[in-house]
Amino acid sequence: MNMKPLTCLARGTAILTAALALNASAGSLSTGQVDFGAFSPPSSGGEFVEINVSDCLISLATRLVEKEEPEIAQLLKGIHLVRVNVIGLDDQNRPELEKRIAGIRKDLDAKGWERLVTARQQAQDVGIYLKTSNKDTVEGLVVLVMQGNKQAVLINVVGNIKPEQLSLLGDRLHIDELKKAGKAARK
Amino acid sequence: MNPFAPQPVIRARALPVALLVLLGFFALVGLAVVGVTGYFRLSPDADALRRIALSSAGGSWNKVIALRVGWFTTGALRTGLSFVKMEPEARAALKVVRGAEVGVYELREAMAKPNQKSILARADKEMMARGWDRAVTVSKQDGLVVVYVSPSRFPAQNLKCCVLVLQERKLVVVSAQANLEPVLALALQHLQASHVALHPPARPRLRSA
Predict the structure, then answer these.
(1) Contact call for residues B92 and B185 (beta carbons, < 8 A)
(2) Cβ of B194 under 8 Å from any chain A Cβ?
(3) pTM above threshold 0.80
(4) ipTM of the complex model
(5) Is A85 helix (H, G, I), strand (E, B) or coil?
(6) CA nearest A155: which of A132, A180, A119, A120?
């Protein structure tokens, strides 16, 4: 019996299975990634900012700085995704966003995220969470801020980053919200 | 019937040369028309974004301008200018652009503020189906800016982005494809040069006899 077609078929099946597995794993969230869900601009026309910096853009930024600032390149190399959401609050979306942020906090607690900072000052409510795999490897960082009646800020950085490095990252990727969150984390 | 009689030879009727020349001429004219009009049409992805934004915003819009320079034109420009003596920075900048297009549209009559939520939702659906990711969204009272990027394994070599700006009565769609590799190489060269200038290698001391 000619085994050649069977070998080809087996090889094809193996490649297809591997490709499907790869595709499935790409669709699922990595350990440090948090699905905040989809947001839409407030109906009142308030501020709405959404930034998704994927690893391909981060690697581009890394290449730009790796000769001049190797320590920053090292920091960027450990990062896979940066997501920032700023949603202006109005009477319509405030209750829904408060509920959603409370749900995210509960979910993070349940999934073993370490709560680093919880600060409630005046109308500002800040929560910073860290996901670590071993004691010294950070897999993700989440910053949740409710600024009274003004805006809600949700940040997720996937990769090896410490809260005090947020400002630096914000500076390098030109994301003001990260800089502000970094300053809040330092306080 | 004589079996040894020669069989009739059936030949395909050759097309007359004149007809072939005419067909070639029309094909060339057609290509030229498509090529020239291509400069004034947006690419399918940018056009889809424009279509969605205009239909979601409502009202009637006037096209102010739509221009597109593709890989062929930028390639021809690069080849042509490769024989010209230029500064390395200018040459690197020329090497960067692989294609660019811009479309500007203006709202004809006053109407209610466009629904940014609906524009964003529909644009997302269309662009994501075409393999684009939304990287940046900024929405305020008076405007909307959305940046889509095409994910690439080698972003330095092939960075594609498509931008939608809707402000008051104007809609702008910009799309560009670039190879940032030459610029990165030039930047690194400059960095190395400045590093050497700042930290010159130590000269061996001459010993006096």
Answers:
(1) yes
(2) no
(3) no
(4) 0.72
(5) strand
(6) A180
